[in-house]
Specification:
Number of domains: 4
Strand order of the largest sheet: 15-3-4-14-1-16
Radius of gyration: 32 Å
Number of helices: 8
Number of strands: 25
Strand content: 25-35%
Shape: extended
Length: 433
């Protein structure tokens, strides 16, 4: 329209005209400028800001986005059975890096200094026979034995017996002692492993791994270490707070300025680390209602440390009013599926990766959230290496042999759907079979 005003109604605006092309170029640039201006405008408001802009807005309230939390657990380092020189050890320093196998190659690090020592002493009994000989019997569970010593103190070597280790049963046999030494006596053994506390190097739910997934030691940790594993799962990893979660917490923040109200208690508990959701039921009457005492408040808190929650309740509850909290009832969900995998997939880790993807979905659920059948199907299908879910093979339910293909309704806010690796049964078959 402006072109006709400037150049008349006969102006050439056909697709191939120079003026038309020039107008299109200018229009695109103007669109980009106006889009940036629009983003700047909306970035100043809590309801429309996203990402770093939202972080800037809530910082005015003194609120910061919760960072992704690291998973924690214990790793076990194994050494060779070569003797360790007296007075020395195999040190493993805090910060030593260990990893899961490719393709995930998730990195973890120790958070304490540990060492494999030359000997560990266990106190045992010294038994005297009628002949006057002394016998020592040690039924200790040990990894290895170089020598057995009898001594009055654990740091004094006494008469040398023999290394009576039975490899199959990992027990010591009895040995005779020709001299008189009174109780207590000690047996020394050479340990072949040591445990250390560890955590993921980065935060996120993908670091919540099953037992025995850690298997790689970085070469610079210690050349005397042979292998590493995690005897138990690593837990506690969680994603960073999303925009929606941060926005909701900021909106509830003003309620925490006061004390003694239901809103202030809920807001204060919601701000605690690890807390995913808080709901409250208040009984205003003079009688017990739904198990809640008269004039009291019952909170359902999902996540967070119990001690932190109790301390917060005590700090915010009104005088004379009973406030208690319970955990939502966990509803276990069973899942079975037959999954076809690509020929290029890493079969050794595929099952654990599929289960981890399913559990990531359950970690995102809050009390009262229904279990969506197709969300579980999507989690499985999106795992790298998965070709397809076998037709009519995915079932979910509340029983060990599920048959459901519909969403599972969680009707109450005091219930939350959960699952675990033990509740997920997968059958993996190669593509084309």
């Amino acid at each position: 329209a402006r072109s006709e005003e400037l150049f008349g109604s006969m102006v050439d605006l056909s697709p191939t005209s120079p003026l038309k092309k020039f107008i299109e170029i200018i229009s695109i640039e103007e669109f980009r400028i106006w889009k940036v201006l629009e983003d700047i405008y909306y970035s100043a408001y809590l309801d429309t800001a996203t990402g770093q802009s939202l972080d800037n807005v809530v910082s005015l309230l003194g609120i910061t986005r919760r960072e992704a939390e690291r998973s924690q657990g214990t790793v076990r380092f194994y050494t060779g059975d070569a003797p360790i020189a007296s007075g020395s050890s195999i040190p493993i320093l805090s910060g030593s890096i260990i990893m899961t196998s490719p393709p995930n190659s998730l990195e973890f690090q120790t958070i304490e200094d540990v060492e494999v020592v030359p000997y560990i002493y266990d106190e045992i009994d010294l038994i005297e026979e009628e002949s006057g000989n002394y016998f020592v019997t040690a039924q200790n569970l040990v990894y290895s034995c170089d020598f057995i010593y009898v001594s009055e103190l654990p740091n004094r070597e006494g008469d040398n017996l023999f290394s009576g280790l039975v490899e199959e049963q990992r027990i010591y046999l009895s040995g005779s002692l020709e001299s008189s030494i009174g109780d207590p006596v000690y047996v020394s053994y050479r340990p072949l492993s040591v445990d250390a506390k560890a955590e993921s190097r980065f935060g996120g739910s993908e670091y919540n791994i099953n037992a025995n997934e850690i298997s790689i030691i970085q070469p610079f940790v210690n050349s005397n270490l042979l292998t590493v594993s995690n005897p138990a799962p690593f837990e506690g990893g969680d994603e960073a707070e999303t925009d929606e979660e941060l926005r909701l917490r900021a909106k509830n923040f003003s309620a925490s300025f006061g004390r003694g109200t239901v809103d202030s208690i809920i807001a204060a508990i919601s701000s605690l680390s690890g807390v995913k959701s808080v709901t409250g039921l208040e009984n205003y009457s003079d009688e017990i209602q739904d198990g809640i005492p008269p004039h009291s408040l019952l909170l359902y808190v999902y996540g967070g440390a119990e001690e932190d929650i109790l301390n917060t309740i005590e700090a915010y509850r009104p005088a004379g009013i009973q406030v208690s909290f319970e955990r939502p009832t966990e509803i276990p969900i069973y899942i079975t599926a037959i999954v076809r995998y690509l020929s290029t997939a890493n079969f050794l880790t595929l099952e654990s990766r599929i289960k981890s993807a399913i559990l990531d979905y359950f970690d995102s659920l809050s009390p009262g959230d229904d279990v969506r059948f197709f969300e579980i199907a999507n989690q499985i299908s999106n795992v790298e290496g998965v070709s397809a879910i076998e037709s009519n093979s995915l079932f979910i339910g509340l029983d060990p042999n599920p048959t459901g293909t519909e969403d599972i309704e969680i009707a109450e806010n005091n219930q939350v759907a959960v699952s675990s690796t033990d509740l997920i049964s997968l059958t993996l078959i190669p593509e084309g079979n």
